[in-house]
Design goal:
The protein is α+β, with helices and mostly antiparallel strands. The chain has two domains: 219 residues, Rossmann fold (3-Layer(aba) Sandwich), CATH 3.40.50; 109 residues, OB fold (Dihydrolipoamide Acetyltransferase, E2P). Helix content is 24%, strand content 32%.
């Protein structure tokens, strides 16, 4: 039985819909991320769970209890805000102890639980420091300890790592996941960072324009996106518009037939093909499925990203940096991939988006 359930939850501001028909079931101890671009409704959903934003329609249940209209302070949830919201005039110890004082926990028990929470986030030596004397990562740990010390049934994280630099952010992703697994608290995290959601979540909820578009395990979400939005938003993708050919085993893109593994496709049906850049191999000209020319290359440290001009448009190819000499710009190459790696998606009206340049040609994805 689900521990936290949202049923047909919606939020309207006047005539504007922020969240529509949100249905989500979260198991006890599960780590779920709400992922999507700015304005997609993920933070509003978190605020409705917390009780900070009233639900327009629908129902929210926690462990069998209807909390749809319960006051925030009666829900007992732990919350870590994007800004951390630490009390600047209080020490680390007092910040973490504050929630227990509000719950009127006896002083000896408070001391024991605060010590355990600070040990959990490795901040015991900093108990008497003030937030201004801490680094960004340390302040994030204080906020996490303050949320966990009250032993909440659900931990809500509102982009908790967005204020950290890239290296520290990556380190804290894994530390956050380790702490969550150790404590076992059911956790809902809001983020717009795809790699963050994919690396530490049990399941990811992708939202677009106030609606859920797919809920899945990270690996399956990446390998089997259900829409072209998900294909391009979760990782990099080559998106190609085409038409299904007779038999349904190939799709014609710019007069070039490309083999696919798909069933139930009607001849003449317009579709979009999604092919991840790392699924493509560069081979000798004539030895692959397509021939092309390397127009640009970009060094990403652990990888090389190539933009290859072909008869079906520009394709982005990502290869591991194995220490060998990279392919030079202007080199004629062949491109090869397994047909099983091509995902066939429903067609959408051509538009210039993050993966398409004007005219429908593929633009190099951002590194």
């Amino acid at each position: 039985m689900s521990f936290l359930t949202l049923t047909d939850v919606a939020k309207f501001y006047g005539g504007a819909a922020a969240v529509v028909d949100m249905n989500l079931s979260v198991d006890k101890g599960e780590f779920v991320s709400l992922l999507g671009p700015s304005g997609c409704g993920k933070t509003t959903t978190l605020q409705m769970i917390a009780g900070f934003a009233p639900v327009t329609t629908g129902r929210i249940e926690l462990d069998g209890r209807d909390i749809t209209h319960a006051r925030p302070n009666t829900r007992g949830l732990g919350i870590v805000f994007q800004s951390y919201a630490l009390f600047p005039h209080m020490t680390v110890y007092d910040n973490v102890s504050f929630g227990l004082e509000m719950l009127r926990i006896a002083k000896p028990q408070r001391a024991e639980r605060v010590a355990a929470a600070l040990a959990l986030v490795h901040l015991e030596p900093y108990a008497q420091r003030y937030p201004r004397e801490l680094s960004g990562g340390q302040r994030q740990r204080v906020a996490l300890a303050r949320a966990l010390v009250i032993e909440p049934p659900v931990l809500l994280l509102d982009e908790p790592l967005s204020n950290l630099d890239a290296k520290l952010r990556e380190e804290m992703q894994f530390e956050l996941r380790q702490i969550q697994r150790k404590v076992g608290t059911t956790t809902i995290m809001v983020t717009h960072d795809q790699s963050e959601a994919m690396s530490i979540s049990d399941r990811v909820v992708v939202m677009e324009a106030g609606r859920v578009t797919q809920i899945d395990r990270p690996h399956r979400l990446y390998e089997h996106p259900q829409t072209r939005f998900i294909s391009s938003f979760v990782g990099k993708a080559n998106l190609l518009e085409g038409t299904v050919q007779a038999g349904g085993a190939s799709v014609e893109v710019a007069a070039v037939p490309l083999q696919v593994e798909a069933h139930g496709l009607a001849a003449g049906q317009p579709v979009a093909l999604s092919l991840r850049p790392e699924k493509i191999r560069l081979v000798a000209p004539g030895a692959g499925l397509l021939d092309g020319t390397v127009d640009e290359r970009f060094f990403l440290g652990s990888q090389w990203l190539y933009r290859v001009g072909t008869a079906v448009g520009d394709l982005v190819v990502v290869l591991a940096n194995d220490g060998e000499r990279p392919v030079e710009e202007g080199t004629a190459v062949g491109l090869h991939w397994a047909p099983s790696q091509v995902r066939v998606l429903g067609a959408a009206a051509p538009a210039a988006g993050p993966d398409l340049a004007p005219g429908g040609r593929l633009a190099p994805a951002a590194a």
